[in-house]
Amino acid sequence: MYQTINIKDLKRKKASFAFNAIEYIQSSGDKKFKGYIRNIPMYIYTNGLIATIAFILKKMGTEYEREKGTDKQSYYEIGEILRDYFNKDFIEYDDKFKEKSLEDIMKELIKCDSKSYRRITLDILSILEWLVRFSDAMLEGEGESSEPI
To answer: Can you tell me where the transmembrane regions are (predicted)?
Structure first.
């Protein structure tokens, strides 16, 4: 059922996914994304993955609010990146997260046992680490940091 994958290959695939996501953000010219993405791992450590996803959903707002140019577009992009990550084939989450909205992914996480929830949280933190690294290197705007991750 699960494919066996080399750890180096997995890290390379995660790096590639994060690079492509940040490249897209770079082309969109979002100046606030960098500051917001840096905070997401700390939100997860402090509040947990489910609460952080709920926070992102709240901050995403409506399509109308995002079109007005508010910071909600940055959170929408973060939510879309996480949703896309849950849908990637190299992630071993069965199919319960495939083709789901971020809200449905949150509902599935609520049903997870402790061990699975912890594993998924660590996996999401690992992709966020790549996203923060690439955003620091590639994006201009808020969230400047000289500290290594």
So the answer is: 40-57
Structure token digits, residue 124:
């999401």
Distance in angstroms between the alpha carbons of the first and the last residue of the chain: 34
Q: Which domains does the chain have, with CATH numbers?
A: 8-138 (1.10.520.30)
For residues 21 and 41, what is the distance between their CA atoms, to the nearest angstrom?
17
Indicate the pLDDT class of residue 146, thresholds 50, 70 and 90: very low
Asked if 121 and 112 count as a contact pair (C-beta separation under 8 A), the reply is: no
Structure tokens at 51: 């609460």
CB 86 within 8 A of CB 93: yes
DSSP assignment of 21-32: HHHHHHHHT-SS
What is the reported pLDDT for 1? Answer: 43
> How far lies 28's CA from each of 8, 24, 85, 111, 126, in Å?
30, 6, 19, 35, 24
The dihedral region occupied by 7, where left means phi > 0, alpha psi between -120 and 50, and beta the remainder, is: alpha
Q: E strand or H helix at 67, and its extent?
A: helix 63-67
